[in-house]
């Protein structure tokens, strides 16, 4: 170990200029990162943790920020030390990507939509390392294999929009690791990933850190990830560092009240053992007696039978369909009024496509979808528009689902304007009430999406979904990008709304602890099929399918003394869902283990 740190942040202060005057993003933060060490920076969204990392990369200026105080000392490859706060942008271009790598939180904004994955992966290698085109392509393939992307040769030719969220994030990680940087800044790199891939990527980053001596600055709000990765932990709150210590000290003897609150908000797998119904999360200060279990009803709201969705793969000169991606294959389930059904599985298993197919945002090939007596598949465009009054969706990436040029007031009001449900001052009042509902200050109604943190944007998306009082909300990874305390509030909010308004949720997620928290019923998906389905208690306390068991095993534990090694994670590579035209999949057959608890007996490939 070298005696001096790779990066030293001293008294950093960052300000942003807004219409209402300067806003301090980071007030006064100091910490160091040593070679071969992982420093985790934790805190809620808006606490200034991402701003600190963007300052190190000197990218904060491009977002309207300004480093107004402090020093950022970086130890370069040649051994010289420079203050990044005073370095000119020309030298920063050499350092960025080459000596400091960065993994961003939202992969779709970090990738360029008009270039192929291969072009983006090889660009840094050719600029910084001077590799030839063939050498760079070979290295890119090797990187994609390292982050466990299936069929890497095909992926190099694809564009970012053709990959699922988890795949895109893996490409971003591969890009950051391409030039073997001395310091890797990872800003929430695994929030959008499912447990199995998250476990693997954490193990991968840990291995690379050990092999290359790279220092890692890991920004996250997931305390279980902190327990798995960190050597030291820095806790931030409202632009200041409130606590710093080794990972054992922080978990076993937290000193600051905020750190204690953060640890208390972490949903833990197994917390709901023995409880048949979900209950709103006990936020700090709530008495156990105030918490009500949500029973739901026995009346079906949504019935899906034999749903099949496939996407054509075109090729050849005439762009004929040469194969199909079997995204959803023979999917059937029933969701009752006022209840929550969760679909869980890895990225690419078809859970998001299933959600979109139900709303017919993606056209299914066959199957029946019945929503409260309406046959959704038989509706024409006008009928579908009316049916959407009853069903709404909250998407995974709130930045992509909000319009960057509209004020938030107009975005939440838009569905009501479209359907003419409220007008004039009644419309304003309804929007204000919705903002109160999702616990956002009313002053935010004048803001634009880029002025909010990720968690706040997701709450706006939920407010917009609630605007028309729908019967069904499909929440596609709605809380995966939120930090624990905000996640607890948003889930609490969703469950209170369910208790009050009787809304049914189809909850699509990969976070097993959250699913255990909110679900009445759980369906585990793998390669487009449900492999196990049943009441939450049955699936979580008695998982029967080998895939469900592997998923449960991959869930990170918020305890630094129970870290998982790479050897614990022996996942099978996911087979390709692409089959030639004319391929007929076997129908799904199930065995009932206990009443209502079913397991797929058709060969699922796992």
From TrEMBL:
Keywords tagged on the record: ATP-binding, Cell membrane, Membrane, Nucleotide-binding, Transport
Record carries keyword Nucleotide-binding: yes
InterPro entries xref list: AAA+_ATPase (IPR003593), ABC_Ni/Peptide_Import (IPR050388), ABC_transporter-like_ATP-bd (IPR003439), ABC_transporter-like_CS (IPR017871), Oligopep_ABC_C (IPR013563), P-loop_NTPase (IPR027417)
Entry's localization field: Cell inner membrane
Single GO cellular component term: plasma membrane
UniProt entry tagged with the keyword Transferase: no
SUPFAM superfamilies linked: P-loop containing nucleoside triphosphate hydrolases (SSF52540)
Pfam families tied to this protein: ABC_tran, oligo_HPY
GO biological process: peptide transport; transmembrane transport
Recorded topology in the membrane: Peripheral membrane protein
Domain of life: Bacteria
Domain ABC transporter: 9-263, 302-552
NCBIfam families cross-referenced by the UniProt entry: oligo_HPY, PRK10419.1, PRK11308.1
The family this protein is said to belong to: Belongs to the ABC transporter superfamily.
This protein's name: Glutathione transport system ATP-binding protein
Organism from which the protein derives: Thalassovita taeanensis
């Amino acid at each position: 170990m070298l005696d001096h740190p790779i990066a030293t942040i001293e008294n950093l202060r960052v300000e942003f200029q807004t219409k209402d005057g300067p806003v301090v993003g980071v007030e006064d933060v100091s910490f160091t990162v040593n070679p071969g060490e992982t420093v985790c920076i934790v805190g809620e969204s808006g606490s200034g943790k991402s701003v600190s990392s963007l300052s190190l990369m000197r990218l904060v200026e491009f977002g309207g920020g300004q480093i107004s105080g402090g020093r950022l000392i970086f130890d370069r490859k040649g051994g010289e030390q420079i203050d990044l706060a005073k370095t000119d942008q020309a030298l920063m271009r050499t350092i960025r990507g080459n000596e400091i790598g960065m993994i961003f939180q939202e992969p779709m904004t970090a990738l360029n939509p008009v270039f192929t994955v291969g072009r983006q992966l090889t660009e840094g290698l050719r600029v910084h390392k001077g590799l030839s085109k063939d050498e760079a392509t070979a290295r890119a393939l090797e990187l994609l294999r390292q982050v466990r992307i299936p069929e890497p040769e095909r992926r190099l030719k694809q564009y970012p929009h053709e990959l699922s969220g988890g795949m895109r994030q893996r490409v971003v990680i591969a890009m950051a690791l391409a030039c073997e940087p001395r310091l890797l800044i990872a800003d929430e790199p695994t929030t959008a990933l499912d447990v199995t891939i998250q476990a693997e990527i954490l193990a991968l980053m840990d291995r690379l850190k050990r092999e290359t001596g790279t220092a890692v600055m890991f920004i996250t709000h997931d305390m279980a990830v902190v327990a798995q990765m960190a050597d030291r932990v820095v806790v931030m709150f409202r632009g200041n560092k409130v606590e710093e210590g080794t990972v054992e000290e922080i978990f076993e003897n937290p000193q600051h009240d905020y750190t204690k609150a953060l640890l208390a908000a972490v949903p833990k797998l197994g917390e709901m053992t023995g409880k048949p119904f979900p209950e709103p999360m006990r936020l700090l200060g709530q008495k156990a007696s105030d918490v009500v279990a949500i029973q739901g009803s026995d009346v079906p709201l949504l019935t899906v039978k034999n749903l099949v969705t496939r996407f054509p793969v075109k090729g050849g000169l005439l762009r004929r369909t040469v194969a199909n991606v079997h995204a959803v294959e023979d999917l059937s389930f029933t969701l009752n009024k006022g209840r929550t059904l969760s679909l869980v599985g890895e990225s690419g298993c078809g859970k998001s496509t299933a959600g979109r197919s139900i709303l017919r945002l993606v056209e299914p090939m066959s199957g029946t979808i019945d929503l409260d007596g309406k046959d959704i598949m038989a509706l024409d465009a006008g009928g579908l528009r009316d049916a959407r009054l009853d069903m709404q969706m909250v998407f995974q990436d709130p930045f992509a689902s909000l319009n960057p040029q509209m004020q938030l007031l107009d975005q939440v009001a838009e569905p009501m304007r479209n359907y003419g449900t409220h007008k004039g001052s009644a419309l304003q009042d309804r929007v204000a009430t919705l903002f109160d509902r999702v616990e956002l200050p009313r002053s935010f109604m004048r803001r634009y999406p880029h002025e909010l943190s990720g968690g706040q944007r997701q709450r706006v998306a939920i407010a917009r979904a609630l605007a028309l009082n729908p019967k069904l909300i499909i929440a596609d990874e709605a809380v995966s990008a939120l930090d624990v305390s905000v996640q607890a509030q948003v889930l609490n909010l969703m469950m209170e709304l369910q208790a009050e308004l009787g809304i049914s949720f189809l909850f699509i997620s990969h976070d097993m602890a959250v699913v255990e928290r909110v679900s009445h019923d759980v369906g585990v998906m793998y390669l487009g099929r449900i492999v196990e389905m049943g009441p939450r208690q049955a699936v979580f306390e008695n998982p029967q399918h080998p895939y469900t068991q592997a998923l449960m095993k991959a869930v990170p534990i918020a305890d630094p003394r129970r870290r998982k090694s790479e050897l614990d994670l022996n996942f099978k590579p996911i087979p390709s869902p692409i089959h030639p035209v004319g391929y007929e999949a076997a129908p799904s057959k199930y065995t009932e283990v206990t009443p209502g608890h079913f397991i797929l007996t058709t060969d699922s490939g796992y």
